[in-house]
Amino acid sequence: MKQLKIVQTFISRFLILILSFGLVVLSTNMWGSEGKGTISIVIANAAIVSFFSSIFSGSSTSYFAKKFKVGQILIYSYIWSLFIGCTVPLAFAFTSIHNEYLYSLIGISILSSLLATNISLFVGTQNIRLFNIYTVLQQLVHVIFIVVFIYFLNLKDVSAYFFAQICCLFFLFGISFFQIMKKCTVSEFKFSRSVLKNMFEYGWKNQLSTFIQFLNYRLSFYFLEHFEGLAAVGIFSIGITFSEAIWTITRSIAVVLYSDVINSKSKEESIIKVKSSLKLSFTLMLIFILGIIVIPAQMYVQIFGREFTNTKYIMLILSPGIFAIAVSDMIGYYFSGIKELKILNVKSLVGLSITIIFSLLLIPRWGIFGACVVTSVSYCLSAAILFWKFYRSTDLRLKDYIISKTDINNLLHVFKIK
Description:
Number of strands: 0
Shape: globular
Largest sheet: none
Structural class: mainly alpha
């Protein structure tokens, strides 16, 4: 059953990879490197807001989905999403960070958080099928709205990207909310001090690590914008977008693992599942890294345009870090699932320190390539800390990374069942 979930989630993530690639190609060809840079900065700002929102609407919702009544969880998650979605973007406005897209940022922040609450609830109740459907639809519906706005309504400005995303999120939240309410009664929507305390305590501890790690992923955008301008951010963001698109594949395994761990009663059983997940993610990442190496540089130029001549070199520099984060995610989700959050904070803080120090040293000197070096080194060190901790607490061996003939046969058997 678990293997079937992984296969279904893997297929959905592969579709997301294709759709993400299509979205990047569409946006770069439509708005160029500067437009892509604007999109990257605004979406990065929205992601910062989401980390504050996710104190209630993210892993906390998943973790307590079967421990408290659904209505009790949703009432805090929804209220918090609305509050944070309005206040944090306004704080950005006071600092004059891309004020022209303030209303877009508010709309995206609120709706993405509300939708994330519903999707997190599906993960917590082990409804991986609905989780997969909605993660694919977020990309697919967004692309459809962009195409409609650009080619049918003739909206050519970069703001069409953000308006399309708002419409997509509103549409999907409405459908998912209706599905949840069919299995939930109004009487469940009650305030509970115990629920509030538990969700907040788990949520902020988990999100602290996630937020710091996010700064690890995105702080280089802001340094690049400061030293090199928006066009440099747009070019660099292609490599980061590819990284995160590739990670959607391995994180499909991690999400199933997390769902299993938070519902497991045996630590030994959870560790066995982690090792199985490590094998699969390690093998998949080897394939993707080889793909990055094989693709000729000219192909990136043909797809994205002449401004993106250095994309191949950006990907090559980032590839060690991409590989390290993808595989170590299995361990990170495991520690999150057993509420061992201190190590997640430590690895994120180390990575962030590396990012800040080396960004100030290398980006002014080497520009985009400096940002790539900083990012890759930060990713590798963060991952190394997780592996060290997991190695100290288990009997991790080299064979735990290499997929066996038995593993392959089991996966093939699942495909035959499908």
